[in-house]
Fold this sequence. Notes:
It is elongated and about 95 Å long. The chain contains 20 helices and 6 strands. The chain has a two-stranded antiparallel ribbon with strand order 1-3. It is mainly α.
Amino acid sequence: MRLIRGIGNWVDQRLQLGAPILETMQHPIPRDTASWFYVFGSAAMTAFGLQLVTGILLALIYVPSAGDAWNSLQILNHQVSLGWFIRALHGWGSNFMVAIVLVHMVQVFLFGAYKFPRELTWILGIFLLLMTLGMAFTGQVLRFDQDSYWGLGIGASICSRVPVVGPALVTLMLGGPIIAGATLSRFFALHVFVIPGLLMLFVGLHVLLVLKLGINEWPMPGRFVRRADYLEKYHDLTHREGVPFLPYGIWKDVVFSGMILLAIAACALYFGPFGPTGQPDPRIIQTAPRPDFFFLWLYALLSLLPPSLETPVLLIGPMIALIVLLLLPFFSGEGEKSWKRRPIAVLTILLIAVTLGTFTNMASHVPWSPVMDAWTGAPIPAKFVSGRTPLQVQGALVFKSKQCHNCHALGDSGGKRGPALDAVAVRLTGDQLVRQVLQGGGNMPAYGNNLNPAETAALVGFLESLHPSGQAPARDASRIAEVQP
């Protein structure tokens, strides 16, 4: 013990960290806030620490490439000692972290802790929630299985709806026009470096503000917040009734964080890791790419919305919600804190919880896009292949072998997930058809990595022949102008 104390004193004399740490541990808090209702922030930090440790261990083996990502997860699951358990800890730790951050935000809202002078603390909390959700989404993409592949395609489709900058956002997100190896490199960098770095920065600022401004006092009915005298009353409260954070507050944080770690470990042992499911293949369309639990409500909403409402709801709704959350402490920064005297706040939380819970429950049975009931073996109607050139007939064979018929109808035969192609050559030029086939768009995945140049040329040649007799196919107006004198 004398040796350890000597080494500790030697290190502290050079780093000078002992006094600030001791001051932090002994900072006064209102006695009533040494409560089980104030343990969620520290539990979220504990879950984040678990994510950092398990994420570093997984990054030693995971290969962020389109060809090796799926195989590296199989190696972790079946060949590396306790690799499956580390993956399970990381996956379930992500779910617990999102849940704890959401509960913490609800508790802060109901206890009025966003009011003066803690406006910036609330705003940083909003960004921490967004970063946490971003970690969950990018982590799902890194599994790079069927669900993540199609889910990423839906995410890219959502980004493409943004006016003006939509195509640039898709290229930035995917690392190019299609989902490929560059896509995983982008998401690996986001998941391992960018988002965790921002999380650590925001967590540091968040904790600093909590230390500087103090922990929110217990929201007793009748205790109002007024900018003119709140700070004076708060300091008087901590002087009269304050207790040091160590040991009065910290022991409940430690106990609750320990319970969270045990719960994560129990779920990891019992349920195991998430995926991966089948290898990503855009030709296999018999899949319902349901995201992880906390995004299921969005999946159900997208499945049930009529197409005309998808873009307004996806672009305008989240923006309005974010603006309201960010401005909340500025137009409601004073007044009553207690949830017992703020019925509108309580009803708002209940309404949001019921809405999200309902959509999450519906996600278990809502269809993804139009119902897919086509049969792979259904033949292409004879009228679409008779009289075609050898190249176009070869394109019809590619159309069948790549299972395009499962999503697109010809005549009365085929799937209804995508638009019918009876007259596609009237709507799209040859160049546009090539671009759509290779890069995808909407719910259609990109086939750039699944077709060689000869197959692409044959398929597009077949599609260019699909126009009513007597009606010319679409042509590029700029090229027509070039050939005219």
